[in-house]
Amino acid sequence: MEILATVDLDGVEPGTPGWEAARAAVTASMAAHGFVVVAAHGALGPDLLAALFGRAMPELFALPLDVKRRTVSAKGPFRGYVGQRPGMAFESLAVREPANPDSAREFAAVLWPDGGNPEFCETIVSFAKNMKKLEETVETLLLEGLGVRGETVGAHLGMLEHGVRLSHYGAPLDRETSMSMQAHCDDGMVNGIVQHEVEGLEVHVGDGRWAPVPAEPGSVTFVAGEQLRVVTNGRVPACLHRVRTPSHRERFSALFGPEQKEGVEVRALGDLVDAEHPLQFNPLRHEEYSKWRYSDQGIKFEDPLKAYCGVGKDGAVA
Ligand SMILES: O=C(O)CCC(=O)C(=O)O
Ligand SMILES: [Fe+2]
């Protein structure tokens, strides 16, 4: 399979003829690189994309900084408003449980205290509902493809919470490298990244080589985070990715991602641990790991997850 081959998930449901081929393609791409690009025109039609990228997001980012900052999270780094970071022309806001109309309304009431913003909420909820279904399809295809039983997949999906992160990038500050976000792995389960018109997302495909993912309408790039690496007992690597925009245009992206419910340990699925595949990571608590990972101590490690909870690795902290 070509590295960036797109897996068409339109109309793919359990029991449909396309299911097995999609399962093989999603699993192969995720296991090899920790990412998969999918096409989902049904979930991301032109009207929804226009409402999200053409109206909701420009309106959101046009708000004054002190208003956007009302959503800064006390729960740790990268949970609420993020911006004004050194060297980055980047701002981003996160909506928790965005498929739930009540939580979308709560978010909007913070930013638009005078009546909320019903149109904004409707757009966020539609986007999140479609992305949640798509994300569950991708995880089900992947976990089934790795040999996990259906009931285990269902239990896993039931232990997730969700967020949407909306991001705005100005022209890259470093005109030479065109880099807008340095290479990193996400710490959650898996993020579905939707780009719009302007290029930027690049995924690492091995040996220092990077592949730019085209900003195709209706396509989503799912990048595995560290939690998925733990859950799959290392079968799926966390995807190293970055944002680089050689055209120097301003750019929006929308990300949907689940993570383990707060307070529930992240651990390998039992179906993926056996004599041939010994346990790779000890169970971890995300809140504690995340605090450590972004601390002065944690940021020193190239592979912080392995350092923190790798089994039988020197320097394991947990
Ligand atoms: O904007 C993008 O395409 C990716 C953003 C990203 O990697 C992140 O927010 O973690
Ligand atoms: Fe990321």
TrEMBL record:
Keywords: Dioxygenase, Iron, Metal-binding, Oxidoreductase. InterPro entries: DIOX_N, IPNS-like_FE2OG_OXY, IPNS-like_sf, Iron_ascorbate_oxido_reductase, Oxoglu/Fe-dep_dioxygenase_dom. Coiled coil: none annotated. It comes from the Eukaryota. One of its GO terms (molecular function) is dioxygenase activity. Its cofactor is L-ascorbate. Residues 160-260 form the Fe2OG dioxygenase domain. Pfam families: 2OG-FeII_Oxy, DIOX_N. 2-oxoglutarate-dependent dioxygenase essential for auxin catabolism and maintenance of auxin homeostasis in reproductive organs. Catalyzes the irreversible oxidation of indole-3-acetic acid (IAA) to the biologically inactive 2-oxoindole-3-acetic acid (OxIAA). Belongs to the iron/ascorbate-dependent oxidoreductase family. This is 2-oxoglutarate-dependent dioxygenase DAO.
